[in-house]
Design the sequence.
């Protein structure tokens, strides 16, 4: 793997925002800069943060949160609301079961989110949920895997979220602590294990997503869009 340093973006109010440009690909090359951005919820943005996000020239914002979350914490950016959970879907712990459960229950929703990255107008696409870790982590990992990203780098990028969100979690009231069974911050093995689960069950990430509604045209467009 070539050296890769995540490009953290300074959008005041959000802690976990980074452009994935420069992330290495297994066959050589990198992810194109200003193509795919991941973040915690824009609901955290200050006025200066909204201005910074707007100035970045976002072509599309994909909000993966549930409707109850968006109602409670509105998104200040123009966005597509594409939740990857259905009403009443459980959230199992520990982490590995949470991720595989999400992927197994709603493949069509994950395929729809990845398709929305491919179909976006030219410019950076922002994918976010609440913390920018779990649902965002899965959609980003699926997208990066589909274009041939180095899995070591995918895991390192996922794990970088822990340090970025530590100040927010440290300030939480004890009554709002992470649910039992999910207290320990997840390591890169969680996201890599989720990808391995997809490959073991479906053959490949591409087979999983195409079987759920992603088209071969989406795959070609996504690779052209993200591969530098």
Sequence:
């Amino acid at each position: 793997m070539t050296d890769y340093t995540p490009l953290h973006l300074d959008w005041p109010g959000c802690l976990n925002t980074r452009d994935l440009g420069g992330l290495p690909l297994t066959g050589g090359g990198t992810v194109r800069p200003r193509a795919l951005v991941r973040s915690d919820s824009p609901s955290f943005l200050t006025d200066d943060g909204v201005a910074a996000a707007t100035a970045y020239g976002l072509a599309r914002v994909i909000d993966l949160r549930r409707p109850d979350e968006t109602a409670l914490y509105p998104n200040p950016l123009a966005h597509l609301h594409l939740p990857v959970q259905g009403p009443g879907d459980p959230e199992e712990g520990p982490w590995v079961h949470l991720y595989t459960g999400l992927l197994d229950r709603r493949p069509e929703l994950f395929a729809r989110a990845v398709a929305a990255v491919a179909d976006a107008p030219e410019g950076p696409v922002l994918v976010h949920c609440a913390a920018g870790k779990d649902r965002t982590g899965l959609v980003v990992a699926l997208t990066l895997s589909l274009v041939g990203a180095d899995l070591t780098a995918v895991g390192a990028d996922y794990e970088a979220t822990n340090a970025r969100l530590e100040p927010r979690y440290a300030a939480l009231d004890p009554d709002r602590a992470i649910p039992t069974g999910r207290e320990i911050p997840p390591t890169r093995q969680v996201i890599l294990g989720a990808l391995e689960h997809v490959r073991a069950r479906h053959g490949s990430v591409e087979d999983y997503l195409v079987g759920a509604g992603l088209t071969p045209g989406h795959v070609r467009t996504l690779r052209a869009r993200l591969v530098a």
Q: What stands out?
A: The first strand starts at residue 7 and ends at 8. The mean pLDDT is 92.
